[in-house]
Design a protein that fits this description.
six-stranded mixed β-sheet; globular; binds 4'-deoxy-4'-aminopyridoxal-5'-phosphate; EC 2.5.1.47; Ser/Thr_deHydtase_PyrdxlP-BS; P-phosphate_BS
Length: 339
């Protein structure tokens, strides 16, 4: 017997499911986090990137040496660029300029051509998704091996990757003992795909949206209309429209989580459990705690630890940034960095 995976692509998925000790103790529930930060690209988006690439290959849209174009908050781009290098494709990544410097650096390291856009809404033609769509059309005409637009928001290969891998892994890892699943939405691929996989196996599993301020989804699922209020420093999540990936998703409940609550959870996980995670993981675990409190002791709530905290060292783990945003700075993060 051997246990060998095929390079970078083989390292995607089959991530561990971690018991979060303090959240579990505080609620009397099992609070479990799917450790997606352990994917080779450092985030959950490796799965969607691989699913989109494999789907485009099967349809004959992506030819050897072709260019993959995508608009992304960063993580999908990192996944596409790294997988592209492993499989013989190039990448052009369009990202809002507000995303962390660490993501820019990583995209360069991954060999992506990088274009930054102003952080403007989807209705504005300079929005990163709209720019990516245009660039893909332009480059499809000029590239010798063609170009595709990955289109993660509306490409259902994204949701399917989670229905086929993330969801079944969670089911198997919990032995089917799962009462609720909660996570935030960027494209909706994770929530809708995992939700579908779990409901197929046990319809009673509660699927709960975790939504940051500044996103219009909480009000959509709570009241039936899209309305955004406030804002958030958390990257990669929040949405102003119902993407195709999110369309018809079976969602039982929704929690709106503020940055204060999410960061308190994030810093607690870092300080007491050694888990350094990105902001969306803080939103997700905070929501899991709320769901567990509603269900009462003895239940199992699963959520997603989406990406690694090192990707946000200049922001969420930087006292100057936190102070500038009026957010609390944990004592262990204060003080001069060592030289
Ligand atoms: N967390 C992070 C850090 C992300 O980058 C993303 C994707 N943009 C998400 C969560 C949301 O995942 P999904 O696109 O599957 O909704």
């Amino acid at each position: 017997m051997t246990d060998i995976r095929d390079g970078l692509v083989g390292a995607i998925g089959e991530t561990p499911l971690l018991r979060l000790a303090r959240a579990s103790a505080a609620t009397g529930c099992e609070i479990l986090g799917k450790a997606e930060f352990l994917n080779p690209g450092g985030s959950i988006k490796d799965r969607a990137a691989l699913g989109i690439i494999r789907d485009a290959e099967q349809r004959g849209w992506l030819r050897p040496g072709g260019l993959i174009v995508e608009g992304t908050a960063g993580n999908t781009g990192i996944g596409l660029a790294l997988i592209g290098r492993a499989l013989g494709y190039r990448s052009l990544i369009v990202m809002p300029e507000t995303q962390s410097q660490e993501k820019r650096d990583m995209l360069r390291l991954a060999g992506a051509e990088l274009e930054l856009t102003p952080a403007v809404p989807y209705v504005n033609p300079d929005n990163y998704v709209r720019v990516a769509q245009r660039r893909a059309a332009e480059r499809a005409a000029s590239e010798p091996n063609g170009a595709i637009w990955a289109n993660q928001f509306d490409n259902l290969a994204n949701r399917e990757a989670h229905r086929a891998t993330t969801g079944p892994e969670i089911w198997r890892q919990t032995g089917g003992r799962i009462d609720a699943f909660t996570c935030a939405v960027g494209t909706g691929g994770t929530l809708a795909g995992v939700g579908r996989a779990l409901k197929e196996r046990r319809p009673e599993v509660r699927i709960v949206l975790a939504d940051p301020h500044g996103s219009a989804l909480y009000s959509y699922f709570a009241e039936g209309h899209l309305r955004a209020e406030g804002n958030s420093v958390v990257e990669g999540i929040g949405q102003g429209r119902i993407t195709r990936n999110l369309d018809h998703a079976a969602i039982d409940d929704q929690e709106r989580i503020g940055d204060d609550e999410a960061l308190a959870v994030l810093f607690d996980l870092a300080e007491h459990e050694g888990l350094l995670l990105g902001g969306s993981s803080g939103i997700n675990v905070a929501a899991a705690i709320r769901v567990a409190r509603k269900l009462g002791p003895g239940h199992t709530v699963v959520t997603v630890l989406c990406d690694h905290g090192t990707r946000y060292q200049s922001k969420l783990f930087n006292p100057a940034f936190l102070r500038q945003k009026g957010l609390p700075v944990p004592a262990w993060l204060e003080g001069e960095p060592p030289h």
